[in-house]
Amino acid sequence: MTESRHDAATDPRDEIASLVVHAPGVGPQPSRPPRSQWLDVWDQFKSHKGAMWGGVIFLVIVLGVVFGPMLWPYDATYIDIRARNQGPSLAHPFGTDQLGRDTLARMMYGGRTSVAVGITAMLLALFLGSFVGVIAGFFKRLDGLLMRLTDLFLALPLLPLLLVMMLLFREPLSAAFGPERGIFILIVCAIGITSWMPTARIVRGDVLALKEREFVLAARSIGTTNTKLITRHILPNVLSPIMVSATLGIANAIITESALSFLGLGFPPDFPTWGRLLFDATDYLQQYPERVIWPGLAISLTVLSVNYLGDGLRDALDPRIRGR
Description:
Layout (H helix, E strand, L loop, with lengths): L1 H7 L3 H11 L14 H10 L2 H23 L31 H36 L1 H16 L2 H20 L1 H15 L3 H14 L3 H8 L4 H9 L4 H24 L11 H8 L8 H28 L1 H4 L2
Helix pairs in contact: 3-14, 4-5, 4-14, 5-6, 5-8, 5-9, 5-12, 5-13, 7-8, 10-11, 12-13, 12-14, 13-14
């Protein structure tokens, strides 16, 4: 009799277990496919409206300077004395210069050179800065020497150094590669050599923190070589500051090239760039102020769009902001 009453009674532990098993969110759940990290980056980047608009504007500018000269009916070097010093019209939306050349055609052709200089100089500075930063952060014996070299370059005045390099190497490179290609190589090298230092410092700081992380120590303990440690474990984790430095480096390179061309030390007069167009327009500032507005507006829009793009990339690539 006692045994039957014991069987009929409900064990409280069974009731608790039943409630736990049937509780929402508890127990076996349907498996979800792992979400890609790049999808999280894209979602965060899309939420940054300034970065999206910056990317769209920069893409439009790049497409315009690349394909615009092919589609526009006027050539950048075509001289028409009868149409000189004209204001904006349907035939010439940006007007013409003192030789009758179409300003819009020269803007697109010159923008191709300015954007090419910005991207190429950025890649050179990024390579030098990343190389020095990784080596200095990973190898302790070389850290002091490379950082003192970085401090030396940071202490040098940028504009006088660029002017000295342009005056010393302008003629030899022009004779070796031609006037246009030689000046292009010189400007790219001058800007790249004088702008790699901030990237080196940022990358070095990240590498110093990463090389003491558990996954790097574990890889080192199983005999992974230094080359594989750097290429497989260090570099992929410092891509965020490198990509942000890349976007900001494009803007700085475009401004520097424009300043050199404005000072008359850039490309020759028959090879237009945005800075050269600004330099040529200063003689006609009182009579035709719109000639200064168009290249200045192009430089400003390009720099602003690239800066907003870099700001969005920084937020999207930072795992703390993404909440991961």
